[in-house]
Amino acid sequence: MVKDLIILGAPGAGKGTLSADLCPLLKIKHISTGDLLREVVESGSALGQEIGGYIKTGALVPDEVIGRMIKEQLNTAECRNGVLLDGFPRTPPQAEMLENILADLQRRITAVFFLNIEQEQVVNRLIHRVSCRKCGKPYHLINLPPKKSGICDDCGGDLIQREDDREETIRKRFATFLEKTQPLIDFYDRKKLLLPINAGNNPQETLRIALADLEALLNNIK
Ligand SMILES: [Zn+2]
Questions:
Q1: pLDDT band at 222, cuts 50/70/90?
Q2: Residue-averaged pLDDT of the chain
Q3: With contact defined as beta carbons under 8 Å apart, do 66 and 101 qualify?
Q4: What 3 state SS string does 134-145 have?
Q5: Domain range for residue 217?
Q6: How far is CA 15 from the centre of its chain?
Q7: What is the largest CA-CA distance in the chain?
Q8: DSSP class of residue 31?
Q9: Is 190 labelled a binding residue?
Q10: Cα 158 to ligand 1 centroid, rounded to whole Å
Q11: Is residue 180 part of a domain?
Q12: How many domains does the chain contain in total?
């Protein structure tokens, strides 16, 4: 059975980790819209040039163009077994467009994972992240601290915190995410496709819950 999945979650909820764990197990392709946009632009294809034109002028890439890009990708051999979409759709109109694209391909959304996490937990996860100014090596001050405080183990460079990982910025991004994503969460909840997953656990536990919930949903549908 083809599995076309979506993953939603605030920055810091662990979307990247769960996606990396889940996709090989389900033999499906992870499609991060941001990465795909960059790849398509770099490929220099007709679609890539069109998208590049929007990006260059700082304009938003229109939904219809993103839709064509996703459709092209869904048609490739690597997406035959299914995909895990990350970063698309972001709005109910985009979700409706995705339904039409999938219907054209005789496919449909199987499930939507929503990694649910408390704001305080995101703050605690991200606020301790630092990286080397020189070589970029990432550290976590609690879980993966450097040997010498403030200094990179590998190259001796200074460890710095990204603007994105400052507490105030984290709280702002979290609030914006919830506000923007709530309509989409409601959309998929009404369609009985939403799988809310408590993302406050360790990655192994999150993966186990995601797989169990997906199986339960699939069994209910049958
Ligand atoms: Zn370094």
A1: low
A2: 93
A3: no
A4: CCCCEEECCCEC
A5: 3-118+175-221
A6: 5
A7: 57
A8: E
A9: no
A10: 7
A11: yes
A12: 1
